[in-house]
Amino acid sequence: MNGEIFSFYKGFSYFCQNFNSRSIMKKIYTIVVAFVFMSTIAFAQSTHYGIEQYGKTLPGKTSVYKPSHQVSRAANERWYNYGFTMYDVLAKPDIYWQLNYLFPDSTILADFGGTFAPPWIHNIGDVLDVSSDMFNEASLYPGQLKLTSASTFSVDSIEIWFLYMRNLPDSIVDTLVVSVAAHASFSGLSGFIGSAINTNLGADSVLFFDLGYSSATNSLSQSGKITFKLPLTVADTATNEYGVNRVVFAPTGLGTLAGSKNIAVTYSFVPGYSWVPNVDTVTSMNEFDFLSFDEDDAGLPFYSKWDFNVSYIIPYDVRYDAAGSWNGSYVPSFAYMGTSSHYSYVHHAIFYKLTGISNYEIMSIEETEVNSNVVLGNAYPNPATSTSEVIIPVNVRADAGVATLNIFNSIGQRVSSEVLNLNSGMNRIPVNTSNLNNGIYFYSLENNGGNATRSFVIQ
């Protein structure tokens, strides 16, 4: 889909479903448009509504703005969600969220801004890579759990956020079917090569795990998966149109995992009711919408090779084996980037509570003192790309006034200089890397006669 991914918000905008071809490392994925019956729908970019618009809370049964449980309750425990982490990395104060219908097939109708058509997403997925540099930035998460490829850990809990609205009798029980798997490779490693996607992200390839999908069962087809069937009853109904629910469960059976392994979670909605095909609407029955977080609708996302954190969907054509070589695979959000120089990068609202077992660390900020009031932290992401930006943390203990940040290349040539007004507390200074070639760079901060230098890499 060229441009926006999952760009649907009920009553305010439509969704975008224009597919594009792309080259793949493992195989050539070309999505074939199978929505012939939807050709009359107008597609447009979604209007995003910040959660802060509702008083920093999502009204509803169990609503929260940013989960308080993101902060560890014990030194060896931590909640993970890559979308929220990217908000921290980008230093964005507001979280943007998107809703989309989730239904197992296309025989019911849904309301897309006044136009009725079948739901087009039938299953969603997410992969968590715990060793990502984004999770392990000490200046953002001091005192929290750090897991590396040498660590072992367990999955204590998984939490899913969703909207669930009921219009049918209390006796009807719907089901949320969740599959969980932990593997080093899943079905295999795939990637985008020679396409607008990897070109826009400044990489020779954009890698992701190929999650196997069974259209016969509308479920994850990975070996070793564990499936949980979570009943949804009237007690789980959101209290109003914008209410968001959450369900938490313990994925027993996964055991102890190595930090080099990645966790895959997929889920689908299974209605406990019958309906008249192509006549009844999901909004008049029991409706389930999945919730996703929009990383950035103004620029390209950070991409670090061998970081496998990404969300997925099963669209209509994959569900019915009409998508060519995408058949049998969950489609990653990278595939929806198209040729755009910017797009909304979506991560589903799936959270993971992990417990460190061995070889884990507790993060502390590595700093170099500029003077008694100012310390210079590690730049992130590191390595970075020439199509993103680098964030340089500067911790100010007391009012420091004006400082100068200089960037030098590996042979000592100054490539940029910026005068900063530093405020007390943590300052996160963005550095545009679009004019920097691959290589090692040194950044130097000068303030009140003091100076400190550290480095980062562009690759």
Explain the overall architecture:
The longest helix is centred in the first third of the chain and has 8 residues, at 82-89. This protein is mainly beta and 459 residues long. A hairpin with a 4-residue loop joins β14 (213-214) and β15 (219-220). Helix content is 4%, strand content 39%. The chain folds into 2 domains: 21-361, no CATH class; 368-458, Immunoglobulin-like. It contains 3 helices and 33 strands.
Characterize the main sheet: 9 strands, antiparallel
| General form | elongated
Number of helices: 3
The chain-level mean pLDDT equals 76
Count of discrete structural domains = 2
C-alpha-based Rg, rounded: 23 Å
Structural class: mainly beta
Proportion of beta-strand residues: 35-45%
Tally of strands: 33
| Through-space gap between termini | 28 Å
Low-confidence stretches are 1-73
Helix content: under 10%
Note the main attributes of this structure.
single chain; six-stranded antiparallel beta sheet; 3 helices; mainly beta; 2 domains; about 450 residues; disordered N terminus
Quick summary of this structure?
By secondary structure, the chain is mainly beta.
